[in-house]
């Protein structure tokens, strides 16, 4: 993790060592990303060949899943390594997973409307309030 500007050393040799360390870190990440891109390009070429080649009808769907499984494992390993190095990345991913995209914002008004029917008897099933296990004000469910 890069130190804040206020915490940088004043000595030029220390600054140079810090810069070289950062460059080495970024170079390693760049090599890993290029390797992963090369693997993905190869998989895309194989999938295109499988789909559009004259022997495309002979490919079984399970074979495609095997190729993608290796990529998924490599991506998961890279993410785990990144989370291990930086706790902030792990917390950000956890917060993103917990995000409920289907719910409405809390500042919007909520209106609960209960529509009651005249007869609560049904030959097949007992009538109850749909979407709620609560008891209604008149005592029925």
Describe the fold and architecture.
The protein starts with 11 loop residues before the first helix and ends in a 43-residue tail after the last helix. The protein has a domain at 5-98. The protein is flat, with a radius of gyration of 29 Å. 55% of the residues lie in helices and 0% in strands. The mean pLDDT is 77. The chain contains three helices and no strands. The protein has 141 residues and is an all-alpha fold. The protein has helices at 12-52, 61-85, 87-98.
The fraction of residues in strands falls at under 5%
As a whole number of angstroms, the C-alpha radius of gyration is 29 Å
Task: Note the overall shape.
Answer: flat
CA distance, first residue to last residue? 58 Å
Number of distinct helices:
3
Query: What is the count of β-strands?
Result: 0
The average pLDDT is: 77
List the uncertain runs.
none
